[in-house]
Amino acid sequence: MSIITNTGPLIALAKIDKLSVLQQLFGTVSVPPAVHRELMAKSGSDVERLDVAFTQFIKITAQPDSPAEVRIVTDHLDAGEQQAIALAYAEKTVLVIDERLGRMAARQLGLSISGSTGVLIEAKRRGFIPAVVPLLYDIRYYGYWLSDSLITLAAELTGESA
Length: 162
Hints:
By secondary structure, the chain is α/β, with parallel strands linked by helices. It has helices at residues 7-15, 20-26, 33-40, 45-56, 68-74, 79-91, 100-108, 116-125, 133-141, 148-158, and strands spanning 2-5, 28-31, 58-60, 95-96, 113-114. The protein has one domain: 3-Layer(aba) Sandwich (Rossmann fold). A five-stranded parallel beta sheet has the order 3-2-1-4-5, with helices on both faces.
């Protein structure tokens, strides 16, 4: 199974060196050109981890023409979100996206979505990682915003302590 992801989840997972769970869960991960550009504009160890992932299992997929219904619900989003949503819509596959407005637009289009927290929960369920909550705190420690309510919900879903 191949999925499409936006910039945020890749950054979050790179911060904690867990990009590999995407490959374990989904095999191939596709990103549109705008997401790749956003990722390569970063600096630090995140970029080194992302570079490795791009050589192994993340592929850049050309941006399809966006139908009117996609353009209408995504016109207020940044280029990476617009392209990721359009690509997931065209390929009729799961979109991994964390940003609230992007998730709302994807839902309006009937897309199946997940986020970095959902990816980690599924990775634990399949036995790829032992716990989710400590990783969420690590993601937050490294500067990626996660709400207390999201961490509490993840703890409830995984039977862990928040």
